[in-house]
Amino acid sequence: MEIVVKDIQGKDTGKKVVLDDAIFGIEPNEHAVYLDVKAILANKRQGTHASKEKSTISGSTRKLKRQKGTGGARAGSIKNPLFRGGARVFGPQPRDYSEKINKKVKDLARKSVLSAKAKDNEIIVVEDFSFEAPKTKNIVALQKNLNVGDKKSLLVIANQDNNVYLSARNLQGFSVVNASDINTYELLKAKNLILCESSVEEIVKILNK
Fold it and tell me: What is the pLDDT of residues 29-58, one digit of tens each?
């Protein structure tokens, strides 16, 4: 599959990039995408939630009343979960939510999303560029020139470029990521995928290993 390369003004450069069918032309595997996104979101969870149980709240352990003969429920101490200020039964405790999936499944998920976006014409390839200084208006102009201003977009660059990253940091719905850091969740969230020319080679190199 061939895509015309544009410059940051949104004009055709006359160059074309061939997208590798092994990455951008496969039949998407929805289950692999589901597994990868599920793992990514699970790994984002801190798991530091906690509630106080009978052993962790303060209060006397004195038995409040005799076991039988009062006509009421049995109560062992003021920490009883039925009382105001008492413990919580089976409350959340700190835990590790992280999930591990095989590298091949993760690669298949990314290939599936890239192939789906290529099929739906949601991939734009631009010439490699950089900014002299970090300015938000540079990215705003890029969005306007590429007609992606009102849609969530992900710009993939080959190598870390702080001026480009800082220029996009304050914009809602526009993200910048290195080719080596792309993941299935970020690719899915973006309506438009903007690839720098050299980042296409990096993606192919990473996913063809």
Answer: 999 999 999 999 999 999 999 999 988 899
